Queue: 2 jobs
Job 1
Amino acid sequence: MREAFDRATVDRLAELWQGPEWLRQRRQQAWELFRSLPLPPSTHEAWRRTPPERLAWDGLGPVLQERGDEVAQQGLEGLRGDGPALALHNGAVAGSWGAERLRQAGVVFCDLRTAAREWPDLLEPFLFRAGLRAEENAFTAQHVAFATGGVFLYVPAGVELEEPLVVADWVDGEGLVAPHTLVVLEPRSRATLVQRRTGPGTGLVNLGVELVVRDGAQLGYAQLQDLRGPVREFGVVRARVGRDATVRTLVASFGASVEKLFVESVLDSPGGSSEMLGAFFADDAQHYDVHTLQEHQAPHTASDLLYKVALLGSARSVFAGLIRVHPGAQKTNAFQSNRNLLLSPDARADSKPELEIMANDLRCTHGSAVSRLEEPHLFYLQTRGLTRQQAVHMIVEGFFSEVLDRLPVERVRWWLEQKVAEKMGAEAPLGRVAALRGLLEEVAQRR
Amino acid sequence: MATANPLGIDLDQYQWGFRMPENYVFKSRKGLSREVVEEISYLKGEPDWMRAFRLHSLEVFFKKPLPTWGPDLSVIDFDDIYYYIKPTDRQARSWDELPQEIRDTYERLGIPEAERKFLAGVGAQYESEVVYHSLKEEWEKLGVIFVDTDTAVKQYPDLVREYFGTVVPPEDNKFAALNSAVWSGGSFIYVPEGVKVEIPLQAYFRINAENVGQFERTLIIVEPGAYVHYVEGCTAPIYTTDSLHSAVVEIIVKEGARCRYTTIQNWSKNVYNLVTKRAVAYRDATMEWVDGNLGSKITMKYPSVYLVEPGAKAEILSVAFAGAGQHQDPGGKVIHAAPYTQSSIVSKSISKDGGRAGYRGLVKVYKGARGSKCAVRCDALILDDRSRSDTYPTMEIDEEDVQITHEATVSKVSDEQLFYLMSRGIQEDEAMNMIVRGFIEPIAKELPLEYAVELNRLIALEMEGSVG
């Protein structure tokens, strides 16, 4: 069901959520902002390469899904082991597994609408506050006002979860879907959340992810996107990292027609550290525009970013990454690397790795490169019996392996390899070195 | 140090920071209007096409907005600036003909010594017009033209008209439009085919009146197979109110030719230095920008090279030093618009005492520029915890068959390095100096000797009191 962007819809969403009064107020304030804020100007540096009009919502309205459909469980395929999992359909629950077991340890893992009803006090300090605010721009205002649902993970102090938690967001229909993720890790706790977004949607996704990692906690967060329809997407993924806390994020995108993401780590306490990995693979006329921010506000903080982008067809990518070291953030260690691989003569990659450094006792480097397939490499692989297509596939796998090798969750690695294979038009991943060996044997036998 | 002053420089000691009483023949009204532009054109006795060009540029200037990025320029009051001052009525040919006070100024800058060193030519800009110009006879015999641009408009109208405004059109940006409307002075250099000018051509530029904008316009044409090295050095006296410098430099490097353009910029620390410098390099040509920025309050300067035919090469070396109250925002741009073109950008920036220095650049590879290569390297040194370094490189790549890399590091002077040098008996301040000199060495070694010496001396001056 599709609604208009009006006050009545905001109220209907509030009914659907049945949340506390403060939440209704936050959303109404966001709606007021949404009404008054214009789209960011396309002359603004952050929007120059992806005019905001490309993400406009004319003729669309929020998708109000009361109940999730089983179809959404498809999103969990291959990613879900025996561990806790959650399936969402345009923000509404479509299945939940293993949450009760977690509850015994004091862990809350549920959809946001349930959380708003049952755990409002846990949400109140963080939701639409800790990582994302309505007043940032028209898109974030829209997100807060019309958030359709999402996921909430709360891990109490000292609780360590070994098994990764998995969430699938199924997006279909032609309206706006605004899923929100809020993760709160209390001091010294540990958890891994894998979130995949897929489905045949054709409208607009307005995503918000707030990651709160308190003192000494450790969070792993993977966001996997393979939306299948010509859907457009705006998103903010922001982590706040406490004292001696660690956050490791992976953002991987394969689907959607236009995607504009802001992925940020805010290190506001000493000893915080952030690893930011990215894997993007676009083809046809897909357009990805990713901003990253490593915000060092406190001394002795560390960040390490590696974003890899491969492009086929007439795809276009923009990477704009900023390391900002605030005055007094001494002993900062910050690294940033962006690598782009052009696989087609019509592909285009822009890279803007930036530094703003206001402290002096630190180590800060960044690097960026744009390259293409090297004929001698392809030739070498072909002399070993691979077809050209397989050779290209192998080089692309090798290109992404630098990211893959740093992922601790096997199922996420598997998923990424599958997606790379799909883009390459192959049936299965080559599986890198092991597969190469198998392939060479097969070739030898055929002879 | 002697008495404290806001710039942190001992004025008695600071050789370049002196000021002569004003004694001008003509000073235009403050502010900018059609009348002022027409007056400038009339006083210069320019042809109609140049007056039309100026008036058109003025329209563009009024329409263009200030840049929305980079340093804040909104404090510039365009109505509070003199756009044209003519220091003497006629061109001086020899040193003795120059007015005494202007001569004194240059004595202190060391121009006569430069002459004695058989430097090729000295074009000296005092205020807005070149007043002293000499060129070694042998170059004149070879057909090399090295005059101020005003003279060139009169003496070589066809050459000027063919190239003027073709590399940097007035529509390019607000400050290029401003310069196009009110330009005065600057150098015009023409090097005929196959002529290699072995000794650098040099010009000194100076600003000397309060609220005087200096809008010089330089045009360099290097014909096929020729070579020239032009050196622009700026030192300016110290003033209390802000001043604007907005130059345009256009360079055409034809097939197989090579041009190097070296600048050591040391405007006084109240000058807004907003300069558009651009070169076009044709087949197998090489363009090199060597750009040192030490002075000024704000510098925005991104020397660029358009590589428009196969085999063209660009090299940009940039050094920036920002002390108290300074914001150095230099950089470089390379546009690869033809196959098999190469470029390299090396930037070194140092910030100190709350200064802000950095690099802002663009590498653009157009579709079809296959086999192009580009490497960008930016290093920054931050000498204290109040200073700031920014790196804003942009890479826009529309071609698959390319190799583009960018690397940057930001660091401080390491305690280990200092300790090592001090354990060898070197004083801390000298050790610091040595490390900074080592840091800029890759660029200093590209300068002609006397400029390398001057650069090191200026940096030593800036580094005074940086330890303890």
Note: Residues 7-269 of chain A form one domain.
Job 2
Amino acid sequence: MKLKLKRYLKLSIILLVAPLCLLQCEKSTFNDTENILKTVSIEQAKDYFNNSETLQRNAETPYITAYTAYITQADIINSDEMLTVVPATTGDSNSYSRILLLNINGEIESVVYSMFSSNNFTTGNFYGDILITDIDGNYINGFRVENGYFIAKYIYSQQQDNNPNIAYRTSNDDCSGCTFSCDLCTLDEVVVTASKKVELGNLYTSIVPNGEDLIEYVGAGDNTGGGGLNDSANTCQPGYVLNTDGICVLADNECPEGFALSEDGECIENPILGADCRSFEYAQPPGALQKACAVTDFGNNFYYGFVRADGSWEAGYFPTNIPLIYFTMPPFMTNGQAANLTAEAITAAILLTDAYVFENADGLTEQQVRSEFTNNIRNAMLAIGGGMTSTAPFTIPSPAPYTTSFFGAATDCN
Amino acid sequence: MQFDNFVEKKIFHLIEVLINEGFRHKNLIGVNLFSSIKTKFFYGMSYNLISIITDNNENIINITIHFNSIINRNFYNQFIVDYGLPNSIIVLDNFKFLNDLKKVNEKKIFNSSKVILDTKEGNFDDNPLFIIWKNANVNIKTLTKFEKDLTELTFKKTDCK
């Protein structure tokens, strides 16, 4: 059933929670439940991911990689609260995934909502399977969808496998005949009343399904905004923009020189970047799971100056230098997009470290600055789905020299 | 715009103001970058970028205007009308040193050091590295990065509180 999906087509869908015409009686019914729903703010979502051991990039083989720079929010039917939607990738290159966050009874709960198209997303309405797991990859629910309608629910049977964890499946596994993965190969199916809607209770196990349809599913590719969770106008992954047909397509660079294409497809001037994107020459050889680039002579001078209470002052700077460093980025981006985002991330890390040095200048040590700079780079790269390492992910024969340029910097390497 | 009025306030107030003025906003790891296609002016100095750092409660810690060049006498004369004379104008004893900034490269994984510069009190015409205003409500610093021919102006919460 599972087809090999082309990556660019996989990105052509978005998940949609469509606002419905609501009946007041339905709303009151929902409010009568014991579940108190609250929106998870974008900042709370970022904190959640920063504090999640599972999602930390250094965690051992995380199931899901979240892209917290692109968090959006979507309406929930029958509620004034919103779902917080985080683009994500799993180890399965055939899935198109989002992490959905909701505060339920005072706790932030997360699920991973993954779509597996059976026809490469070539039709307006979705055909394929929906998999819902927790962020560790533990099975919660699954659905079969045809022509945009949920027509069957998959039932996991404890008899088939004592460990319904699909976290560590890779696309190289020979499980092409399985519904979702080797561990979830043969699932029982229960026919359900065909509907374009799915209940929150089918996503979050702490919510008892009460028969209400709270999320509407719409098939991909139609002009109503595609399929899935509609987190506002543009929910495409980094480097992709929504075209007039509501499809995420690779962003073309049609901007004049000196301008850069933003993630929502507009040409903007990006006049001051601490890092030139040409420093980051990403490559991904066959077999490599991620992109990587090598940069030589990477660093920055962090200035400080302060006046003490007694009127004395001190001024100086902290030079930093890493002779050779490697940056990594997710495989779905183009090399140029990865370079652009890395330049922005490094710029943010530099500015944040600048502020730290400014704030704490009196008595600050070089070790503290080094530690702060390192953490800021790691966090900035993590926020765009990338990483930093001193070990080569694969052989990179020609590292690029680090270039800083405030004006005249190349801001678009795509 | 009176940027100092926004220091220690919730950033959403300033986000609204800046977006209405045509800035684009991007937040990455707590650094709020506001860039403008159209060049903006602050006391006669041109700029296209403002960076704002907030604390965990979204309160503004500092606001930095990244000027497109080194501040000039015109800027200084206008600025002191509103903010008074600075508390310190820090200039380098040996200006030539600025063109030969120390570069650490000891073939370690991550090299770093601390360089304390020989500085003295000076005046604006001495090419100040820092100009510092310590006010009751907000501290203001200019930092001129001569090797890059530009100045950054930062409003930050006062240390006096």
Note: Chain A touches chain B through 54 residues (CB under 8 Å).
